Amino acid sequence: MSEIKRFTLIKPTVDTPxxxxxxxxxxxxxxxxxxxxxxxxxxxQAAFEQNxxxxxxxxxxxxxxxxxxxxxxxxxxxHCAKQPNFITANTSLVDAVFRILLANGNIPxxxxxxSREIGKPADLILRTLSSGRVFMGIRPKHPxx
Length: 145
Ligand SMILES: [Zn+2]
Fold this sequence. Notes:
Blueprint: E1 18-20, H1 23-27, H2 32-36, H3 42-47, E2 55-59, E3 66-70, H4 71-78, H5 93-103, H6 111-118, H7 122-129, E4 138-140
Bound molecules: zinc ion.
Zinc ion binds near residues 40, 41, 75 and 79.
């Protein structure tokens, strides 16, 4: 019985952590970096102008695991998302959630936690993120595989 894989679909709640799944773009047949490039600071937009893919070694602060990560995504999280003007008051709810997750190193956050950061009600965030459509790769964090 232990060999049967369980695919449990749990309805997300305001306490369900969400994070950006960078594989989502690939599933849509898209390159995430084409989209993510717009979120880079001016300096790094110039640096990543060409369609280059750079892989760098990165140590996960939570698991201490070394992973080959995408250079653009790394720079975005480590530098550009930490710039003071990265999160502005005029972004849409989904964009605000996306920017907060990036600025926090894509550590999963629940709608309750996101609500504190972006000042929108947690149930509104939950309804938006669990509407059945995935926005910008933001999905519930599945228990580690
Ligand atoms: Zn930057």
